[in-house]
Amino acid sequence: MKEIRIAKNAGFCFGVKRAVEIANNEKNKRTYTLGPLIHNDDLVNKLKESNIYSIEVDNINELQSTDSVVIRSHGVTAEVHQKLKSSNARIVDATCPYVLSIHKKVMRYFNEGYQIIIVGDKNHPEVIGINGWCNNTAIITKTGDELTDISDKVCVVAQTTERLINYDKVVEKIKLKNIELITFNTICNATKERQESAEELSKTVDLMIVIGGKKSSNSRKLFEICKINCNNTIFIENKKELPLDLLKDEKNKIIGITAGASTPDWVTNDVIDKIQSIDKDL
Ligand code: SF4
Fold first, then answer.
1. Does any ligand 1 atom lie closer than 6 A to the CB of residue 63?
2. Domain 98-187: which topology?
3. Is 73 in contact with 127 (CB distance < 8 Å)?
4. Nearest CA to ligand 1 atom 6
5. Does the C-beta of 73 come closer than 6 Å to ligand 1?
C-alpha cells in the first residue's frame, strides 16, 4: 500500500483563488480575460464552458461596451488600463492586492526620481505590468549583473514569485555601491510557504509529484526545489500525465504531492484518486 503525503501549503494562492471567483461571478453574457486567467489549461478550458474567453491586449479595440473584461491577478501596465477604459467595456479588476501594492510603490518612487529595479523575470506578465507603472524604465534583473550603470537613488522591488536568494543577492550588490537605496521585499508569503513546504516534504518521500501548468513559473520553481532533495521528482499537468511505471514501482512506497499556486484543487484531487485506484489494483 502506497503512502501519499501532501505538502502543507499547496495549490491556489489567495490572489489566484480570488481572481477565479471574480471571473466566475461575472454574469455578463460575454466575458473576457486579458490573457489566460491562470497558467492552467484545465481551468482555462473549464472557463470556456462558462463562456469566459481569453483575449490578448492587441484585441482590446474589438471589445464592445456590453462586454466585461477581467484583469487577471498578475495585473497590467498603466497604458493597458487606459486602453481598457477607452474600450468602454466593463472592467473587472482582479489584480492581486499584493501586486497592486507594488504598482503603487513603483509609481510613487519613480515620481520622486528613483531608478526602479525589479528582481524578477523580464518576460513574466507580472513584471511587465509592474514596469508599466514607472514608464517602462525599470532595470529588471535576477542576478544583479545588469546593474553596472545605475542612478544614485534606487528603489528595489521583487516579482512576487521570485526566490529570496536572488532578491538578497541583488540587494547586497547594490549596497556595495554606496548609493541612496530603498528596498521592498515584495516576495509573496504564499510563494515562500509553498516552496518551504515542498522542500520539506521532498526530503521525506521516494517519489515527488509536482502538479502545475507547463507555463506556470511558480510550479516550475517548486519542481526545481524538490528535484534537489528527491531526484525522483516529476512535473505533471494533470492525472493524464501520471507515469504508470513509476507508480507501480515497488521502490516508490511514499509519494509526495505538491501543486503550484495556479493549480485548482480538483486537478490535484484527480491525481490523488488515480494514484489510489492504481494502488488498489496492484
Ligand atoms: S502569489 Fe501572492 S501575490 Fe501572486 S497572486 Fe498569489 S497571493 Fe497574489
1. no
2. Cobalt-precorrin-4 Transmethylase; domain 1 (3.40.1010)
3. no
4. 15
5. yes
Strand 115-119's sheet: what is its strand order? Answer: 139-141, 115-119, 153-158, 180-183
Return the pLDDT at 163.
85
Q: Which atom of ligand 1 is nearest to the CA of 189?
A: 2
Query: Using a 6 Å cutoff on CB, does residue 127 contact ligand 1?
Result: no
The one-letter amino acid code at 167 reads Y
Residue 56: alpha-carbon gap to chain centroid: 18
- pTM, full prediction: 0.88
Query: With a 6 A CB cut-off, is 14 part of the ligand 1 pocket?
Result: yes
**DSSP letters of 136-188?**
T--EEESSSTT-SS--SEEEEEE-TT--HHHHHHHHHHHHTT--EEEE-----
Among all residues, which ones are annotated catalytic?
A: 126
Nearest to 197 by CA among 55, 62, 8: 8
pLDDT beyond 90 at 29: no
Round to whole Å and give the CA distance between 68 and 88: 9
262-273 pLDDT, tens digit each: 999 999 999 999
Domain 14-95 CATH (choose: 1.10.357.20, 1.10.10.10, 3.40.50.11270, 3.30.420.300): 3.40.50.11270
